[in-house]
Amino acid sequence: MSTKTPVRAAQKPGFRLGQTEVVAIVLLVILLSQRWLLPLLDHDLFNTWGTIFVAIVVQSAPFLLGGVLLSAVISTFLSEKALSKIVPKSPVLGVPVAGLAGIGLPGCECAAVPVTNSLIRRGVAPAVALTFLLAAPAVNPAVLVSTAVAFPGQPMMVLARFLASLITAVAVGWIMMARGKLLLERLTNLGRDVHAHERSFLGNVSHDFLHASGFLVLGAMLAAAVNTFVPRSVVNTVAGQAVLGIATLALFAFVVALCSESDAFVAASFTAFSDTAKLVFLVVGPAMDIKLASMEAGQFGIGFALRFVPLVIITAVASAVGIGWWLL
Fold it and tell me: Where are the transmembrane segments (predicted)?
């Protein structure tokens, strides 16, 4: 007696409210309500906030686009077989290799997020990809040259930034291997799920750019708010205290969300702070800021970001303080 397996009717995909739709709705609401919003926003503080917000977005967007294009090239044209020849099979060796590979990709931290996501899609061990994420914005030649220009006659500051940033990236990679197995498994599964739905080159570009740019805008809004509404006098009062000075500049680096190729000039302007505190600012910022945290939550999930962000900040501060004590 034969049994027939019932055939289910194909279900039409329902409407899903994604990031693009949310952004479109928000823009529409703003356009429709501008008659009432403009008088409320006509204030010096809001004008300052708008200027800083636009500056952060304009400064970061080209690097984000560059990272998205590179990510699309990796996702579309680079096979797992080719990557297996480049990246060591052992993640223990792959982590320091990824840290040093950051030297070869001049760019901002915004570019590294989509590239890291693309590497995970292509089967690179998540710990190795995350090491690249942390190293690329901090140890590339463009960043080191800008640091040398911002701190003339202080070559040890350049060396200290390079070493502290590289140690941070490699240490986090190894810690994630040893203690973050569950999180890394989630990233691996995420990469497999995305890899199961192959896209064209333009499809990868549009998907990654729309996805990452929304979180870039959110992070830029928060960073601009902190820059505008937190009095600088509050920051200056703690500059003379060693521990509070380090903690203040670490927090400042996280919230102001500067590009890694320009943050050295800001750090050099903190004349009241110690060189070690300035180094903390230079190491924490490219490794983790509010803009990056927002983008990583969007790319890898909020649960991952809640664990990864504190780990990176603590490791970066410890590395910078140690190297600063040794060299500065």
Answer: 21-38, 50-78, 90-115, 127-151, 158-177, 209-230, 237-258, 264-284, 304-327
